[in-house]
C-alpha cells in the first residue's frame, strides 16, 4: 500500500518576509561602498557642515519679527530627511535594477516565495537601516554639537508618522523607479542625479525660505520637501514655523502629500515592475 504524503505548506507571507529581510540586510552589509555612502553619508555631511558653519544662525524676517535658529539645529532635519530618501528611494531604485540585470529577480520568481514577501523583506530591511542611520545622526547632533532633541511626546509622535510615511513612500517609489533605467549600469547615474537635484531644491543644503519661489514651487511637488519640513517641525522651536513659506508647519498637507506619493508609488510599481530584463522576454 502506497502512502501519499501531502506537500509541505510554505510559511505565511510575514515569516517569509522576515527571512527575506535577513537575506537583504546581509547582502546590504556586504556591499561596503553602499553602506558607506547610504548609511554614513548624512552623518558625515552633518558633521562637516555643522563644524564649518556651527557658529552661524539661520535667520529670517517674518510677519512676527526676526526668527533665528542655530545652523546645526536647522541643518539636522534636512539631513534626517535626505538620509531617509537615500536609504529607501535611492537604495532600492539602484539595487532592484541590479538584481533584475544579474538574474536575481528571475531566479527568485521561479521559487515559491511570493512577490509580497520579497517586497516586505525590502521594507523591513530599509526600516532597520533607517533606524540605525537616524539614531547615529541624532546621537552625533546631540552629543557632538549640543543640538537639543524634542522633549515632548507629541513631537516624537510627529517624528514617527513623518518617518514612517517618508520611508514607505520612498520604498514604493524606489521599486517603481527601478523600471525606468534601461540597464543596471545606467541606474546609479540616473537615480543619483534625481536625488541630488531634489536635495538642492528641497531645503536640505540651503534654507528653503531663501530659495527662489519657482524652485520652492517645483520642490513642493515632491516628497523630500515635505519630509524635511515635517522633520523641521519636530526638531526646531515652534516659532521657527514662521520661517516656512506658509508660516505654518502644515502637518495635514505634509501627511496628505506623502500619503499621495505612497499611493502613486504602489500603483505605478504594480503596473511597471518587471522580474526580467527588457531583452529577456
From TrEMBL:
Keywords: Antibiotic resistance, Cell membrane, Membrane, Transmembrane, Transmembrane helix, Transport
Residue intervals of the ABC transmembrane type-2 domain: 33-276
Molecular function terms, GO-annotated: ABC-type transporter activity
Family from the record: Belongs to the ABC-2 integral membrane protein family.
GO cellular component, one term: ATP-binding cassette (ABC) transporter complex
Name this polypeptide is given: Transport permease protein
Listed transmembrane segments: 34-54, 74-98, 119-141, 153-177, 189-209, 249-270
